[in-house]
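tool_call: predict_structure(chain=1)
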Amino acid sequence: MLRAVLNVIWLILCGLWMAIAYVLAGLLAFVLIITIPFGIAAFRIAGYVLWPFGRTIDRRPEAGVASVIGNVLWIVFFGWWLAVGHLVSGVLLCLTIIGIPLGLASFKIIPITLVPLGVRIVPVDRVYAKAA
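tool_result:
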């Protein structure tokens, strides 16, 4: 129940705007054709940014050198702009007491914003079940 309430508040205050930024980055990546994998990653993150509570990031150890090279290119072209957006929105959200959990969620999304290749978005329950 708390996750749903936080997700709705997040969607209104930050999620929708950040998801639009990811969709625009994804569309630009699709236009450039060679960067289509970046576009797919941007759309995946846009879905995560719309409804982040109850989901987390899980690293894929089988991702190879191509994902590292791709992540470097992503940071240069798209990642750092989107990370700055999360940083600014996180700071603004933390200015109010009720916004602190939302601001922390915005900060939590920055790692996948910077390195989206070689990770997957999974429900929190699955990660805890795998660790046990």
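agent: Helices lie at 2-31, 36-50, 65-93, 100-114, 124-131. Proceeding to next step.
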